[in-house]
Specification:
By secondary structure, the protein is an alpha+beta fold. It is 21% helix and 24% strand. The chain has six helices and 16 strands. The strands form five sheets. Strands 1, 2, 3, 4, 5, 14 and 16 form a seven-stranded mixed beta sheet that branches. β11 and β12 form a beta hairpin. α1 packs across α6.
Length: 284
């Protein structure tokens, strides 16, 4: 089956929360294969149906309020409100959150950065508001062979201090190290496929010989290849699920003061959940 970011999964009119465990993990198998999937018409309750699905795949992450840009969903701390609508219904004028290429959770160390994002669309603007994705699993193989070999031995560092949306964040306040060192290429923890892991647009990759390669050079190169790109145009009740390790994403903005609201949850895929996934998929 050809890998394709943004593959639409048809549940035959059912909700993801109604699937059997085997059916649920069949859907997730497709997500890990394609990197990004979308399920339409998911009119699901946040506190039970949405959150329980997130927990079924992995540990539902409760982020500090600052990491949700102080837009966490009231009474459901595992969900962040993405967009310009505050919990009290008021609007943030000209909101620009997450409008840069990045991977969520890169400030956690490997292997604890294996995160799957869930985005449930509620309010869709009349213009803009798409989420962009780049396939950095296929993208690795598209780079020059010499560059691939350099990146396999390259490292880079990340600190929450460097993330523009978290301005003023102090790592020790959140139990995080001042900096964490990542490899620029990892093998996927479930599929064993190599993929880039390059952080955000302004990261700097340090090669074995000391050469510095800027992430933006790699991203700009991958952006020239249309088949590596996917831009999701939301419909109400879309559920977009994606693997943070094999794709890099950003809010494409462009909605100005049009109302936009997504609910985001995150599954941390632990060794326990990986074992469960493997056992169930052997039975499917």
């Amino acid at each position: 089956m050809k890998r394709q970011l943004g593959t639409i999964i048809d549940l035959g009119g059912r909700k993801i929360s109604d699937l059997s465990l085997n059916e649920f993990f069949q859907v997730q198998k497709q997500m890990f294969h394609h990197g990004v999937i979308c399920i339409r018409n998911q009119k699901i309750d946040l506190a039970h149906e949405f959150l329980s699905s997130i927990f079924k795949l992995g540990h539902a992450i409760k982020l500090p309020p600052q990491f949700c840009l102080n837009h966490e969903q009231p009474n459901i701390p595992q969900l962040c409100r993405i967009g310009n609508i505050r919990p009290d219904g008021t609007k943030v004028s000209m909101f620009k959150g997450a409008e840069f290429w990045h991977q969520d959770g890169d400030y956690w160390g490997y292997p604890g950065n294996f995160i799957v994002n869930w985005l449930l669309s509620d309010i869709v603007p009349n213009k803009g508001g798409e989420t962009g994705f780049i396939d950095i699993q296929k993208g690795l193989q598209r780079l020059d062979k010499n560059l691939q070999n350099k990146l396999r031995k390259a490292q880079w560092t990340i600190s929450v201090r460097e993330i523009s949306d978290f301005e003023g964040a102090v790592p020790s306040d959140y139990g995080l190290p001042e900096k964490y060192v990542h490899q620029a290429v990892y093998k996927h923890q479930l599929t064993d496929q190599e993929h880039l892991y390059i952080g955000h647009y302004n990261s700097k990759l340090i090669c074995e010989d000391g050469e510095v390669i800027e992430t933006k050079q790699i991203i700009d190169e991958l952006l020239k290849q249309e088949d590596l790109l996917y831009f999701h145009k939301y419909q109400k009740d879309d559920l977009v699920i994606f693997d943070n390790t094999t794709s890099i994403h950003k809010s494409m903005g462009g909605y100005g003061d049009e109302p936009r609201l997504l609910y985001r949850g995150q599954s941390l895929i632990t060794p326990f959940h990986m074992d469960l996934y493997k056992i169930i998929n052997k039975e499917i």
